[in-house]
Amino acid sequence: MKTEPNIHALSTQNLRQLIDETERSLGELNAELDRREQVAQAREIENLETHMKSAELSLQTIRDFVAELVADLRGRDKT
Amino acid sequence: MADLGTASAPADDVSAQRRGSWAEWLKVAALIYLLICAVGLIGSGFKAAVGDQAKELFAFAVNPFAGLVVGTVATALIQSSSTVTSIIVGLVAGGLPVAVAVPMVMGANIGTSITNTLVSLGHVRERQEFSRAFSAATVHDFFNLFSVVIFLPLEIAFGFLESVGKALASPFYEAGDASMGGLNFVKAATAPVVETVKSVLLSLGDEAGGILLIVLGIALIFVSITLVGRLLKQLMVGKAKEIMHTAIGRGPISGIFSGTMVTVLVQSSSTTTSLMVPLAGSGAFTLRQIYPFTLGANIGTCVTAVLAATAVTGDAEAALQIAFIHLAYNVIGVALIYGIPFLRNLPPLSAEWLGETASKNKLAAAAYILGVFFIIPGLCLGISSAV
After folding, report:
1. Residue A73 located in a structural domain
2. Is it the case that residue B25 has pLDDT exceeding 60?
3. Residues B196, B186: contact at Cβ < 8 Å?
4. A64 vs B115: CB contact, 8 Å cut-off?
5. Which of A62, B73, B187, B263 has the fewest CB atoms below 10 angstroms from its CB?
6. What range defines the domain where residue A28 resides?
7. Of A34, A44, A64, which has the smallest distance from its Cβ to B284's Cβ?
8. Higher pLDDT, B365 or A54
9. Residue among A43, A58, A60, A65 with most chain B CBs within 10 A, to mutate
10. Is residue A2 part of a domain?
11. Are B94 and B319 in contact (CB under 8 A)?
12. Which of A41, A45, A62 minimises the CB distance to B121?
């Protein structure tokens, strides 16, 4: 089990060092998060042809939405 | 011999591909030529059919709210702001007053945002995905609605955009023979077709021939923009990918620029904004990340009308003025609304709230679409024509 350091017992110098390390870690974690986000975005853009097809409007989209809407409203009536 | 055969097969494929690509580009060029001719036909037809009565004919739209509604509903029904703005350019060339056309152009901006909103309905089965997709679509609607709320009163009070458009168009026509009117090779290239069709149809009489020219022009604009959009989507998907890749992680200005460029390449703001819907729906892009792309789409779509205005007959300066008004309205709108932090946050906050609400209650999504694009505009039109 991980124990938290007693910050009241730490010297000021140690406290500053701990803050520096935490800030550095936070920076690294944020950079990694950004990198992963950008990789995911690049992957989506690679599938642009597929997205272009799914971004085309069809009557089926509207029909499916109306069917979902009706099912939703019927479900609400029953409850 | 066998070696020669296998070596030449891939080379044959490459040259066949190049020939195919050239053929596609030739089709694009032919369709753009057709579009410019079609705008010329509308201008000539309108002038022939109504003569100096254009003002009287569009008296119902002198009320700016009526003009706004006409632009919104026409674009929502046709689902192409490029088509509607090109038709407006043609009508202005034929005598429609610019002041009447300005609210119509603003309405076209609102009407075009219905396409990506309808596309987002395809994500309805997954609640979180639908919330993200619907927000991504409606951020464009809210931006355009806020833009009208800011600029329409300014236009009614001061004719602000009309002055900006005039200032931008007049240098092209002030310099006499050295102006666009004197050295317009686009007009020279399209004139033989426009004049031939015009003389054939106007032989049926000014009114009947003029109406036929308008109908033919509208049909040709619709067909050419639809086909050119389809072709450019295939031809430009690689380039669009490249542009979007370079915009990743580079901030909002890069996003706006990329949205503009992609829209210019595919000649359709609906394509760009609809493309943002699945990207946001998947969760890879946040609403704040796709927001600048949609703003860029508003700017990029103005190219079609400017292109169409280069070769109209009739009041060519007014036609270029309305095309520049469309461009100025969108550029200034983006600069103002995105430039001021308080205003910048309004469209995404509204879209997030609506997305969340619509994902919990699908009836809210249906009510929003019918209300914003059809019922409220219809009521406004009814009230404004009754007053």
Report:
1. yes
2. yes
3. no
4. no
5. A62
6. 12-78
7. A44
8. B365
9. A65
10. no
11. no
12. A62
| pLDDT tens per residue, range B99-158 | 989 999 999 999 888 889 999 998 998 899 999 999 999 999 999 999 999 999 999 999
Whether chain B has a CB inside 8 Å of the CB on A77: the answer is no
B248, A42: Cβ pair inside 8 Å? yes
Q: CB A54 to CB B124 under 8 A?
A: no
Tell whether A59 lies on the interface with B, counting CB pairs under 8 A: no
The dihedral of CA B40, B46, B51, B54: what is its sign? negative
Taking only Cα atoms into account, the Rg of chain A, rounded to an integer number of angstroms, comes to 26
Does residue A61 sit at the B interface (CB-CB below 8 Å)? yes
Q: Minimum mean pLDDT among A12-26, B155-169, B241-255: which range? A: B241-255
Q: In Å, how far from its chain's centre is CA B136?
A: 19
Residue written as token pair 């600048």: B292
Q: Is the ipTM of this complex over 0.90?
A: no
Tell if the CB–CB gap between A57 and B119 is shorter than 8 Å: yes
Residue the block writes with tokens 């024509």: B385
Q: Do A48 and B240 touch (CB under 8 A)?
A: yes
* Residue B125: C-alpha distances to residues A61, B86, B133, B244, B362 (Å): 11, 37, 11, 28, 10
Q: What is the pLDDT of residues B210-236, one digit of tens each?
A: 889 889 988 998 888 888 888 887 888
Contact list, A69 vs chain B (CB under 8 Å):
362-363, 366
The minimum CA-CA distance between A23 and chain B, rounded to whole Å, is 22
Task: Pull the structure tokens for residue B244.
Answer: 């979007």
Indicate yes or no: CB of B248 within 8 angstroms of CB of A56: no
Q: Domain boundaries in chain B?
A: 34-386
Residue of B117, B130, B245 to mutate for A, most A C-beta atoms under 10 A: B245
The contacts of residue B351 (CB under 8 Å, 6+ apart) are B134, B135, B136, B138, B139, B141, B142, B287
- Count structural domains, chain A: 1
Provide the whole-model pTM.
0.82
Gap from A25 CA to chain B (nearest CA, Å): 21
| DSSP H helical ranges for chain A | 12-46, 48-54, 59-78
Read off the pLDDT band of A50 (50, 70, 90).
confident
pLDDT digits (tens, 9 = 90+) for B324-381: 999 999 999 999 999 999 999 999 999 999 999 999 999 999 999 999 888 888 887 7
